[in-house]
Amino acid sequence: MKYVFYFLIVVVVGSIASCKKTSVITSPDASIAFSEDTLHFDTVFTTTGSVTQLVKIFNQNEQRLRLSTVSLMGGETSPFKINVDGVPGTNFSNIELEANDSIYVFVTVTINPAASNLPFIVQDSISVQYNGNQQFIQLEAFGQNANFLRGVRVTQDTMWRSDLPFVILDSISVDVGATLNIDSGCRIYAHANAPFLVNGSLKVFGDSTARVLFAGDRLDPGYRELPGSWPGIFFTPSSTDNVLNYVTIRNAYQGIITGGGAGTAPKITLNQCIIDNIYDAGILSFASSIKATNCQISNCGTNVYISSGGNYSFDHCTVATYGSFFIQHKNPVVFITDENELGVPSPLTLNFNNSILWGEGGTVDDEVVVRQKGNGADFNVNFTSVLFKNKSATADAFFDNNSLKNEPPQFAEIDGSKEVYDFRLSNISPAIDAANTNTTTTIDLDGKPRPVGSAADLGCYEYQP
Fold this sequence. Notes:
The protein is mainly beta. It has 1 helix and 38 strands. The chain has one helix spanning 2-22, and strands at residues 24-25, 32-34, 38-41, 50-59, 64-72, 80-84, 87-89, 91-97, 102-110, 121-130, 133-142, 147-154, 158-160, 166-174, 179-182, 187-190, 196-198, 201-205, 212-216, 233-235, 242-245, 247-250, 256-259, 268-271, 274-276, 281-293, 296-298, 302-315, 318-322, 334-337, 348-353, 356-360, 368-371, 379-384, 387-388, 404-405, 411-415, 420-425. The radius of gyration is 30 Å and the shape is elongated.
């Protein structure tokens, strides 16, 4: 009788253990894992448009787990296709995984390499839901033929040609002692997490017929005009001798950021450049040196922000912002101070010459703010022949008698509702012929001639009748 009792105990315990193994866990604390959080399809689709990868979903529990849904978020229209444990489709329900077991999800992407209307980076995701939880597997593929660079370091002098666009993923950096040369007509598109870091030198050789473009890589409607879609170009303290000719920088979080290098020779030279639709600052500079000629810095959170001293020259520049759906105009277009974040001043030399500094469509009274902490010998700030907008007189002492205060510049066409911003001059602009006669700038931003020996126009564009 005793042996029968022991046998029943063993059978009952075994049955309980078996039930525990075969029952389905329903707790929201149950856990799953993926073999990959993101699938990158890094093949450049030049000849074949189809590539397959796989990801495994692991049940990390001691009981069976039911996945309520596994779904391709883009559905039937997605360029990605999925196959769950040998079954193709876009939406799968009630998939059971044994304890400590896994299933395979195969992912295929098919892209026409000639489809230029696609964004450079095509994205989708797989949703996995279970026990009230939802997790995602991200999918990322190349949508157009281009030079795709992921986490690249430029370690020696390098030239980029314009035969294919460059798409920057993760980041790119130029080492100290190396120079990255960029040919005219190049197009550089950066992903949302991809800063452009210059520790060495950057030289860009755009011209009036083939500008060089830096922008975000989302070109699809709704994103192609979105500010803050990529980080921007960072010139670190070790960077020197940077020259950008006929460059357009658009849609970044910050356009140009530079620190250090506050000598008499400019750390960055900008000729005929456009910095536009920047979420935070178009030019953000700390104790550095910039020489800008015929540049348009437009529609930024703050167009030019300079602090901690340095050496700066802006000649025939248009610095203007109009409030838009994406960017509220609530900061002055130009902010200048010799102080650092600790309130300590450094020597500052800054000249704005023959320029337009203007803003509308916001809550800003003074578009030019100058804050001086150091003494006069170390603070040399001058605005010569400048059209500017300031309600107060706090900065007037820095402007010469040839400057025009609070006279609307009468740009060619500004229509925020249609996202039209043409900062060329209309025929009634007070900026026409208002430059000082000693200007040495013989062309404008479009590469068109300025008059020699007589007064030219203020700003980056010479009026063309």
